[in-house]
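Page 42, continued from yesterday. The earlier attempt failed because a stray header line got pasted into the input along with the sequence. Redoing it now with the clean sequence only.
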Amino acid sequence: MDGGNHSIVSEIVFLGLTHSWEIQVFLLVFSSVLYVASMTGNILIVFSVTTDPHLHSPMYFFLATLSFIDLGACSTASPKMIYDLFKKHKVISFGGCIAQIFFIHAIGGVEMVLLIAMAFDRYIAICKPLHYMTIMNQRMCIFFLTAAVTLGVSHSLFQLAFIINLPFCGPNVLDSFYCDLPRLLRLACTDTYKLQFMVTANSGFICVGSFLILLISYVIILRTVCKHPSGGSSKALSTLSAHISVVFLFFGPTIFVYTWPHPDSQLDKFLAIFDSVLTPFLNPVIYTFRNKEMKAAMKRIFKKFVVYRKIS
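This time it went through. Structure tokens are written below.
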């Protein structure tokens, strides 16, 4: 289709989450509180791991990196959603929409690799404890971090490559509160059925594949613990339960969105809220309350802060 004969879409209009004023007020309070709590919790984890020498290990390096990425995850769509709850006319520029899609997919790809890295770290700690310091060295940590960023950015660019040459001449309304690639493709002034299938297949394959890798690794770890129980394995297993909880929180909504046959359902919006607002909040909560070393580190930081305030 010749895009020269059509007006170019300069902004995208969101229909939002609901038209009920009461529900909007509830969502405003709920989302604002969770956003502030998510930012605070993840910043606290990053600060604790960075400043406390007791937490300078591969496991906490990956945890701090995951929390840093979660800062971006909860800031990609949540602030715009909270701001739009005040407004009747909810819009975002077309460029802003593309940027939002890029960061959503890039951050998601990075998180998947980080979760695999954390599972690998627990696998070595439990199944090969004598070789842990040799295998999980600084080079391995840098390798996983580089792989995470590379996969996340390349996956996101690959997704955006589908829409570079598409004509957008109207309509420009999305029944959502953020820009999602499958929904945006349906606004193009041409047939995008094959592109939608490729986008869904690409994201779905990466999500399901990563999830299966994690499940297999957890099964191997649990079998090893059952066959060779020990005090060290029990300590490592206590942190594994937190990882498993975070994995299901992250992959559950994501896999459902990319495998559910009715993407326009209200359930899709609920899962999007869960993934963008609630999951970044629950991650630091789970790791803080399920990890004795993290709680001890935060207590030390709090005591230092209290002493500093008294001296000053």
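Notes: The first strand starts at residue 11 and ends at 14.
Reminder to self: strip header lines before submitting.
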